[in-house]
Design goal:
The protein has 5 helices and 5 strands. The protein is an alpha/beta fold. It has 2 domains: about 55 residues, no CATH class; about 200 residues, ATP synthase, F1 complex, gamma subunit (Pyruvate Kinase, Chain: A, domain 1), CATH 3.40.1380. A 5-stranded mixed sheet has the order 3-2-1-4-5. A hairpin with a 2-residue loop joins strand 4 and strand 5. It is elongated. It starts with a helix and ends with a helix.
Length: about 280
Amino acid sequence: MIEKKIQALKSTYKVVRVTELATLGKLGFLRQRAEQAVDYYENILENLRYVKNNMYLSQNNVQEKRIAVLVITSDRGLCGSYNNNIFEQVDNFLATVKEDQIVDFYVIGEQGKEYLLRRKQQIKKYLKISLEEITLETADALALEFINGIYQGEIDALYILFTKYLSAVSSVALKQKIYPETSEDSAEDISSEYILDYDESDEEIEQLLLTNYISGLLYSVFLYSVASENCTRRIVMKEAKDNIEKQLEEIIREKRKIDRQNQTNELMDIINGSSVIRKGEENC
């Protein structure tokens, strides 16, 4: 029985160790891609603010009656508190929703879909995509869907609930409002050196920049989320590995103790048997 236990733990240890190393190897590359995407959308946002403040002023004071929320979770478990932290953000957000507001959830990840269904929330769209294989084209398509909803009056505000990767041992779940973007930057703070002259109308440029801004932000958020998922999974795998090592040490120690006891019992049996034989010979 003990031998089977040891063998099972050793097999599990190999799987856990491989998973830990695999996720660790992805983290640096994933974060680098995410930071590059962030640089891109921040540049687009700067241009968007300039257009809004100096050219065409769209209506930003619209009451938030219809709210779109993109929730990003994982498809599978084995990633510790990664999904639970997002669920907490969902609960906190729902606590702020007013009676006259309508919330449409867009969901990435099977875990998020199941949680929202348990909460009896309306899921407008479930996006069955793999974040590890995400492309800018996918982010563009989703951004265009949101933009169409915004300009057709179906979306007054857009939020994202996701997990931001900070380091190989740290990440944080966030709620971020991405439309209408709110910033204290004024037009005077934005240098015109970074703005190109356009032939299109101000309205067309605003929509183009808004589309690129949301697309770039979505892409960076996708990459941050998958990096965070792998970060959390690596931590869980390391904890599991350490736990298995501890269990193995305890079981092996117990096995050695049992083996020593068995050897002692066998030796005592031999000694007792020898004593009986010797006494029998003496009596003869």
